[in-house]
Design goal:
By secondary structure, this protein is an alpha/beta fold. It contains 9 helices and 8 strands. It is 32% helix and 11% strand. A hairpin with a 5-residue loop joins strand 7 and strand 8.
């Protein structure tokens, strides 16, 4: 995510539990703005099951309205169903208000486009060897395009590097449906909604944690390497792996660019955790993170993915 700061949203009341609408939104009259690639019209935020490219949900996907609901909804052994449930979550009222307010107000550069305005599900190979974990979607990136690390400068850096490492088929990721595809790689955010000032609260982090834990659990059998972008992603991965039964040493491994830790899993396998500075504008503009630095981490991830199993 980038350091974008949209206009603060109105103070919204806590959303109550509600049932997903039974109406087929695809049958509604055409309204809204055209998707930048398909031209199909969408309202902002985008209703579930309306035809947005890659939308995993339907109009009847169950909606989690609080932390208890998230914990319950995350209990599924179907990755596609998990993606769908993530994409309609309304458990954190501050984040729901923010993401939807941004989707309605829009940035001037994207005023003619619909905004996704919903949580961002994990995306990529369902059986990944490499898992990339970031912080949260950008307000005018993933929150606009509906795909993690897509449509913002952080994503520009990340996808270009993934392409150079042989982990993505294209060097750019501009919109859902653009033909981009990850190779033996999957991306996920620790927090699934764009937060104000790029800073989720501890309560929001904890409410969202079951989604990350469940997704890592569903793909962990094939994962050889996890790349954590920033200390936030690093800490979120360690918490999730410990809850999944991995042997996480105490004190916990410290984050740093290029840091590496081997974590034994139940059953005897080992997952490698790599750290990288986040490709935020703050880091890339100041030179704290350079292209060669990011390339080195992702090429190391590719090497680990290609190595024989432990």
């Amino acid at each position: 995510m980038t350091g974008e700061h949209p206009t603060p949203p109105h103070n919204l009341p806590r959303s109550e539990t509600y049932d997903a609408p039974s109406q087929d939104v695809s049958a509604l009259p055409a309204t809204g703005l055209p998707h930048p690639l398909t031209g199909q019209l969408f309202d902002s935020p985008v209703p579930a099951g309306g035809g947005w490219p890659g939308d995993p949900a339907t109009a009847t996907t169950p909606v989690a309205a609080d932390q208890v609901g998230v914990t319950s909804a995350a209990r599924t052994d179907d990755l596609r169903e998990l993606e769908a449930r993530v994409s309609v979550c309304r458990a954190c009222p501050r984040l729901v208000g923010w993401r939807e307010d941004v989707a309605t107000a829009k940035r001037r550069a994207f005023a003619g486009e619909p905004y996704w305005g919903r949580p961002i599900a994990g995306w990529g190979d369902p059986n990944p060897a490499v898992l990339v974990v970031g912080l949260a979607p950008a307000a005018h990136g993933g929150n606009r395009t509906g795909r993690v690390f897509t449509g913002d400068r952080s994503g520009d850096w990340l996808f270009a590097s993934l392409h150079r490492a042989g982990l993505a088929v294209q060097p750019t990721s501009v919109a859902a449906g653009d033909g981009q595809r990850l190779l033996r790689t999957r991306m996920v955010a620790a927090v699934r909604c764009a937060p104000p000032d790029n800073k989720p609260t501890p309560a929001e982090r904890d409410t969202c944690a079951p989604w990350l834990r469940a997704e890592i659990g569903l793909v962990l059998a094939s994962v050889r390497c996890i790349v954590a972008l920033g200390s936030y992603g690093w800490d979120a991965v360690l918490r999730a792996l410990r809850e999944l039964g991995a042997q996480v040493p105490r004190p916990r491994p410290r984050f740093g660019h290029g840091a590496q830790s081997e974590l034994p899993l139940p059953g005897g396998a080992v997952v490698h955790l790599l750290g990288s500075y986040h490709p935020s504008q703050q880091n890339t503009f100041t030179g704290r993170l350079t292209e060669p630095m990011l390339d080195a981490v992702l090429r190391r991830a590719r090497t680990l993915a290609d190595s024989p199993g432990d």
